[in-house]
Amino acid sequence: MSQVFFYQLERQPLLAVLAKLLQVTLDRGGKAVVQVGSPERVAALDAQL
């Protein structure tokens, strides 16, 4: 069965939280999908992660 988790950003920037969540997901043997609104944003996230 799939598990879905939600996280509310409060004090940390998106990139810091996203990197941590993705690492935890991969460490648990899971898969993740990150959906963004533009090819430019994909390139920016790819470069930063």
Task: Provide an overview of this structure.
By secondary structure, the chain is mainly alpha-helical. The protein has 2 helices and no strands. The chain has one domain. 49% of the residues lie in helices and 0% in strands. The longest helix is centred in the middle third of the chain and has 14 residues. It starts with 13 loop residues before the first helix and ends with a helix. The relative contact order is 0.16.
Query: What is the CA-CA span between the terminal residues?
Result: 28 Å
Q: Uncertain spans, ≥5 residues at pLDDT below 50? A: none
Strand content: under 5%
Shape: globular
If you compute it from the alpha carbons, what radius of gyration comes out, rounded to the nearest whole angstrom? 12 Å
In short:
The chain has 49 residues and is mainly α.
List the defining traits of the structure above.
49 residues, mainly alpha, 2 helices, 49% helix, DNA_pol3_chi, PolIII_chi_sf
How do the helices and strands line up, and which of them pair or pack?
Elements lengths: L13 H14 L11 H10 L1
